[in-house]
Write a structure and sequence with these properties.
Number of helices: 7
Largest sheet: 4 strands, antiparallel
CATH architecture of the domain at 3-41 and 72-134: 2-Layer Sandwich
Helix content: 25-40%
Radius of gyration: 15 Å
CATH topology of the domain at 3-41 and 72-134: Alpha-Beta Plaits
CATH superfamily of the domain at 3-41 and 72-134: Nucleoside diphosphate kinase-like domain
Order of helices and strands: EHHEHHEHHEH
Number of strands: 4
Bound molecules: uridine-5'-diphosphate, magnesium ion
CATH class of the domain at 3-41 and 72-134: Alpha Beta
Strand content: 15-25%
Shape: globular
Structural class: alpha+beta
């Protein structure tokens, strides 16, 4: 069982729709630990770094316009298998195909304006955390309640 960190964004649609608390609250209530959190404006350059794998795709210009259209909330969440756990909570890319109970399935019906980004694997998480956060912005703090979230052999 791997204790993982994953990069999450509440995208501009989530901020505009006042869903930051709802989305971050779901991650916290699941038991994930926040180790970094901030609000920022994504620039075109940052978008190209984050979405490097998509830059040459036909949808990229519209994605860039969307992700730079207003502030996002960026956070790093930590927990056992956090990458997979968050991807499951998000639901699939297209909100119309996302099941109720997922963030995308409960709050949206768009393929682009789908509220949340979460890293899709360990390599992406490492890269994306580095794109959005400096090492000193990630806080390692005592977390006594962590013992109520999962057993010692699960992390
Ligand atoms: N996207 C889009 N049109 C598409 C596919 C993706 O606008 O046809 C956007 C959407 O906001 C998505 C992001 O590009 O979340 C990254 O795409 P990816 O396939 O990596 O989806 P995700 O990992 O976010 O589910
Ligand atoms: Mg992706």
């Amino acid at each position: 069982m791997a204790l993982e960190r994953t990069l999450v964004l509440v995208k501009p649609d989530g901020v505009q729709r006042r869903l930051v608390g709802e989305i971050v609250g779901r991650l916290e209530k699941r038991g994930l630990r926040l180790v970094g959190l901030k609000m920022l404006q994504v620039t075109k350059e940052l978008s190209r770094q984050h979405y490097a794998e998509h830059v040459s795709k036909p949808f990229y210009p519209m994605l860039e316009e969307f992700i730079t259209s207003g502030p996002v909330v960026a956070l790093v969440a930590e927990g056992p298998e956090a990458i997979t756990v968050v991807r499951g909570m998000m639901g699939p890319t297209n909100g119309r195909q996302a099941a109720p109970g997922t963030i995308r399935g409960d709050f949206g019906l768009s393929r682009q304006m789908n509220l949340i980004h979460g890293s899709d694997g360990p390599d992406a998480a490492k890269k994306e955390i580095g794109v959005y956060f400096k090492a000193e912005e990630l806080l390692d703090y005592d977390s006594p309640l962590g013992g109520t979230v999962c057993a010692g052999d699960e992390k």
